[in-house]
User: Fold this.
Amino acid sequence: MARLQFPRVRLTGRQSELRDELLELMLAEGFAHFTMDDLTVRLGCSKRTLYALAQSKEQLATSIVRLFFKGATEYVEKQLQRARAPERRVVAYLTAVSEALRPASREFLTDMADFPPTHEVYLANTAWASMRIRELIQEGTAKGSFRDDTNAAFVSEIVSATMKRIGSGSMQEATGLTDSEAYAQLAQLVVAAVKR
Assistant:
């Protein structure tokens, strides 16, 4: 997943708190409709304080999306370390992705998809997740837990395409499943397809 790219200056304690508050606010309500003035009112800070984090609302939104995915990646990898059996590792990975994305409102996901710089961050993270699924399937095949004829690249591409549909909201529209439920179904589908 994409790395956090805030300016190289060290954040003060207040700036770190503000960044965390921004993350919480944007996850709950999205970011496209906010102006810098709106954000200063909502967060009780000055524009100068916000501009110390980023030079524009667009840069601020992009850095917050990166921050979100950095935290999500760390959470997912930590959960994955707890699983040992190949089948459980695939399920643990997709379940952890679902849990990590749970705080993201539909407004946040829509804004992220509609704004090219944040959409690029999302696509980079989806590509990372696809690569991790490929690695997990290759590990399971090497250990004899998954079928020898499993094409890990193909399965990871299917996972990536499905993740994009879940993230866009189109999966929920088509199936009525929440994002979390869709990830649970995806995990079951992948494991059923590759198991011996």
Summary: The two ends are 30 Å apart (CA to CA). The domain at 65-194 is CATH 1.10.357.10 (Tetracycline Repressor; domain 2).
